[in-house]
Design brief:
The chain is α/β, with parallel strands linked by helices and 213 residues long. The protein has seven helices and ten strands.
């Protein structure tokens, strides 16, 4: 869920401005999953632009406090959300940890890096939500370690039905600064895409796994 429409539009504007989100309906991208997509999102590039990362940091922190209250710990999902998660934790004056996709196969075998005490309230920070699988895997690891996961805050979501279903099934509350609908609205308002490209982008979101086959 997006909490503030003005912030959502501004976030979409900034991500498009620095090409963190690229729209290319005529020459689709290939995702690691094998999906063909007219959009590619890499929010890690925001870390290279101080004014933009500060905007994201401050607005994520404010929305976390507003929606979940101030937690004991901020957890970033590796690797994409380590940077922004740490910035949010710093802004809030909170400890930071991060969660790997799976336990290390050497050393102490940690999946969660950093200090986490049993029963602490945790908000998880993500950079991007697609199907939600990797994000919810991190939540599962935190819960198994004794954390009380209050919810998740992400920069951007594609808004796939499968993601909403996954979060509802696992009873995890998700909020995002912006999403696909606000992105398309901003892209049309600024003439970043044409009306024809808009229809292509809408069609893809309806069935991303079979689009362009």
């Amino acid at each position: 869920m997006v909490l503030d429409k003005d912030t959502a539009k501004k976030t979409a504007e900034l991500l498009l401005q620095i090409n963190a989100i690229k729209l290319n309906p005529k020459n689709p991208f290939s995702w690691a999953s094998g999906w063909k997509s007219p959009i590619y999102c890499d929010n890690r590039i925001t870390l290279s632009f101080p004014p933009i990362r500060n905007f994201l940091r401050e607005n994520m922190a404010k929305q976390i406090e507003m929606e979940y209250g101030k937690p004991d710990v901020i957890a970033g999902v590796a690797t994409g959300a380590i940077g922004i998660g740490m910035l949010v934790a710093e802004y809030l004056g909170l400890p930071f940890i991060y969660v790997r996709p799976e336990p290390k196969k050497h050393g102490r075998g940690n999946q969660i890096e950093g200090f986490l005490d049993n029963g602490q309230n945790v908000v998880v920070v993500e950079d991007l939500i697609s199907t939600g699988k990797s994000s919810l895997n991190a939540v599962k690891a935190l819960k198994e370690s004794g954390a009380n996961v209050k919810g998740m805050m992400a920069i951007f979501s594609y808004g796939f039905d499968v993601a909403e279903e996954n979060f509802e099934k696992d009873r995890v509350k998700l909020n995002t600064l912006s999403n696909y609908d606000f992105l398309l609205e901003q892209a049309i308002d600024t003439h970043y895409i044409s009306d024809t490209e808009l229809e292509t982008l809408k069609d893809w979101r309806l069935s991303p796994s079979t689009w362009n086959q």
